[in-house]
Design goal:
Elements lengths: L2 H22 L16 H26 L6 H26 L1
Length: 99
């Protein structure tokens, strides 16, 4: 895995994660328009965050394990470790939205 593919894999994780975290950022503290007091946004976005990071981690691990030409062990183990760490942090931050 060269440096370019390393950064491409990180971008594939970072773009959806930052987008979904930004979507959950509540800038409007006023009442919602149109009545209806129940918002599914945090629940759906939190589950999407967990699912995307988990699937990304599995894909990166699969690529690292089944790749024929072995490269730096730091890159091979580093990307799945980043994914698992991100998934754990997101779970801790958004655990109230998941249930």
């Amino acid at each position: 895995m060269n440096k370019l593919s390393f950064w491409v894999w990180l971008a594939i994780l970072a773009i959806p994660v930052f987008s979904l975290v930004a979507a959950q950022w509540d800038t409007n503290t006023g009442p919602s328009i149109g009545g209806g007091g129940y918002d599914l946004g945090p629940f759906v976005y939190s589950w999407l965050l967990i699912i995307i990071t988990f699937v990304w981690s599995l894909c990166v691990l699969g690529v690292a394990v089944f790749r024929r030409n072995r490269t730096s062990p730091l890159q091979t183990i580093g990307l799945p470790a980043i994914g698992v760490t991100t998934c754990a942090i997101l779970f801790l931050v958004y655990q109230n939205n998941l249930f």
